[in-house]
Design brief:
Chain A: It is found in: Cell membrane. The complex is a heterodimer of chains A (297) and B (328). Chain A is mostly helical and 297 residues long. Chain A contains 15 helices and no strands.
């Protein structure tokens, strides 16, 4: 067979381009990291630099001196992510399975019920009213979990997967053998569809972990700040640090020396941390999951 | 709950002519047979009723002048006044223009770059390296918009930002007040969006390219087709369905925008509104910061209705192109 590979020269050019692209993707994070370990006085004089001449871990020391704020935010984020992911995968699969069953005559109605929500919604205001006035979830941790429990896209992916990977004959055979619907679902359908459960689980984990919007509109209680929201507060309110600092320190002289800029960036890094650690595992399965849906196309 | 509802419907049908009642009977039997399936649907149905269908009744807020004393139902009707106010100001035009134009730029830019990168990745001889590059370029997709706003801030901060202190200082340029200069953001926002989203597009298109049967390329090679010719006449035509579907669906969502991108990375700076305010951020600001419920609801409804027809229309086109890919 003739050689259809690109020339050596083109190959090198492509590698150079990709190395530049990869660096571009990581550079902003490197900058934030470098700022977080730069000496504060150096920043005041020279601004943020990639290669600062004077390093300092003061920002991290400051954050961990009173780690309860960060720890609490981590706790909220972990609780919301784990609970939310488990419950939402469960509810989504319970919804997707019946509408994947061709012998269930009313699957069309229930499919419409969920897919119509992709087309039309009441908008932010009525939705906000329902959560605050009807469900009374303002300043409740459930306000961070409930709004993202069911997504039509996830249900669509699961439904398609069930239809592709679980032959109707198998479900029929299981019923003939006397297994109830629930047993069929948990012992036949679930093991055969593990990849889609893992995929939706990953999607939801990322979604819950990265959410700040629900905190922004429902949460004012500082005990319920998630990590993302804490970070948002630190960047959006210039005075947040000083106010929070004042609470902790109670001393004006200490406050004046507060390395605000570096603390902010250190906080961002503490927020990115778990994503970076989970990334090697995450992206591999994420890519698999994304291509799961495109087998059909 | 649902079974009970259906049951009462079936009972009501008893007085109807015989053929109707047997039909109801069959329906009842079918539902009873599948009562466990209905039970499985129950949590999801409850969620949809509360999270999606109940708020749909709330669109009446857009036609009312809400005050907290009378509540939602008791507040006076004002007809189309909220809409009249909304469209009387230049706000409606600005947020519509911004939303549509940004989305348009995002769609084109991300498509062209993601497809190009995917094709190039596929050509690399070292497959391990290709995988590595792909992983790195996918990384920004995993960051929340709050984190992205920090990264942007590190570059654009007026006092200490790297652009002002590192680059502009080096070339002796004047420092810029990035967060109060609207004219630069039509370039900054597409860049951020591209940086964050290109890896995702790459994954989708690369999967499609890998799926192409190698025989096409072998045949082309025998005919003496160059790499360029192969890309133009085999790769692109064969991944065209994926491109068309993704693009049409994106066009369906052209009235909705990435709230986080426009709210977080701009630090919701009012000075930037002329070029950064989109429908979603307008609705949010009107509700939370201005407390103008009627106006906010009106803008939200305007978005919902136009969005409805856009999604419906784009889905209709998808159906024409490839029936299997249509969502509805």
């Amino acid at each position: 067979m003739a050689n259809n590979e690109i020339s050596r020269f083109t190959n090198i050019i492509l590698h150079v381009i990709f190395i530049i692209l990869s660096i571009t993707c990581l550079l902003p994070i490197v900058l934030v990291f470098m700022i977080s370990i730069t000496d504060y006085d150096y920043i005041v004089l020279n601004g943020y630099q990639f290669i600062p001449e004077k390093l300092s871990l003061e920002a991290y020391a400051y954050i961990f001196k009173d780690y309860s704020v960060v720890l609490k935010a981590y706790g909220v984020s972990f609780f919301v992510t784990i609970t939310g992911t488990l419950v939402s995968v469960f509810i989504s699969s319970l919804y997707a399975y019946p509408i994947s069953r061709t012998d269930f005559r009313y699957r069309g109605f229930f499919a419409f019920l969920i897919f119509f929500t992709m087309l039309f919604g009441g908008g932010l205001v009525p939705w906000y009213m329902v959560y605050t006035q009807v469900l009374d979830l303002k300043n409740s941790i459930w306000a961070l979990i409930v709004p993202m429990l069911l997504s039509p896209f996830n249900v669509l992916i699961m439904k398609t997967y069930f239809q592709m990977s679980v032959p109707p004959a198998l479900i029929e055979a299981s019923t003939i053998d006397g297994a109830g619907e629930l047993r069929t679902f948990f012992q036949i359908v679930f093991p055969l569809s593990l990849p889609v459960f893992a995929t939706i689980g990953l999607f939801n984990t990322l979604h819950y972990w990265n959410d700040w919007f629900n905190s922004m509109i429902f949460i004012t209680d500082t005990d319920l700040y998630s990590l993302q929201y804490l970070m948002y507060k630190m960047i959006s309110q210039a005075d947040y640090l000083s106010r929070n600092g004042a609470l902790i320190q109670g001393s004006a002289t200490e406050l004046a020396k507060l390395p605000g800029e570096t603390i902010r960036m250190a906080m961002a890094l503490i927020g990115i941390g778990p994503i970076v650690l989970a990334y090697p595992f995450f992206q591999r399965y994420f890519i698999k999951g994304l291509t799961l849906g495109s087998i059909k196309g | 709950m649902i079974t009970q509802e259906k049951k009462s419907v079936a009972e009501a049908g008893d007085s109807l002519p015989v053929h109707r009642s047997t039909k109801r009977g069959a329906m009842l039997r079918h539902l009873l047979k599948h009562k466990v399936l209905l039970l499985m649907l129950l949590p999801g149905v409850l969620f949809l009723l509360v999270n999606n269908y109940l708020p749909m009744f709330g669109i009446i807020i857009a036609f009312k002048n809400i005050n907290y004393v009378d509540g939602i139902l008791g507040s006076p009707w004002v007809g189309l006044d909220n809409f009249r106010f909304l469209f009387a100001t230049s706000d409606a035009w600005i947020i519509t223009r911004n939303t549509v134009l940004y989305n348009f730029v995002f769609i084109i830019l991300n498509l062209v770059i993601a497809v190009s990168i995917a094709i190039a990745l596929n050509e690399l001889k070292n497959k391990l390296a290709a995988k590595f590059y792909q992983s790195i370029m996918f990384f920004p997709y995993f960051l929340s918009m709050v984190v992205v706003s920090y990264l942007v801030f590190a570059f654009l901060n007026v006092e200490y930002g790297f652009i002002n202190k590192g680059i502009f200082a080096l070339f002796g340029l004047d420092e810029l007040n990035w967060y109060s200069e609207p004219k630069y953001w039509p370039f900054i926002l597409p860049l951020i969006n591209l940086w964050k989203g290109v890896g995702y597009g790459c994954v989708i298109y690369l999967a499609a390219i890998i799926g192409i049967d190698n025989e096409y390329y072998e045949a082309a090679l025998i005919d003496g087709a160059s790499k360029w010719k192969q890309i133009l006449h085999i790769t692109i035509p064969l991944i065209r369905p994926v491109i068309i579907i993704t693009t049409i669906l994106a066009i369906g969502g052209i009235f909705r925008s990435d709230f986080g991108l426009f709210y977080q990375t701009t630090l919701n700076s009012g000075a930037l509104y002329p070029t950064t305010l989109v429908i979603d951020t307008y609705v949010y600001n009107a509700l939370i910061n201005m407390g103008n419920l009627g106006m906010s609801a009106a803008a939200g409804l305007y978005q919902s209705v136009v969005g409805f027809f856009l999604v419906l229309g784009s889905n209709w086109i998808v159906r024409k192109v490839d029936k299997d890919q249509a969502v509805f």
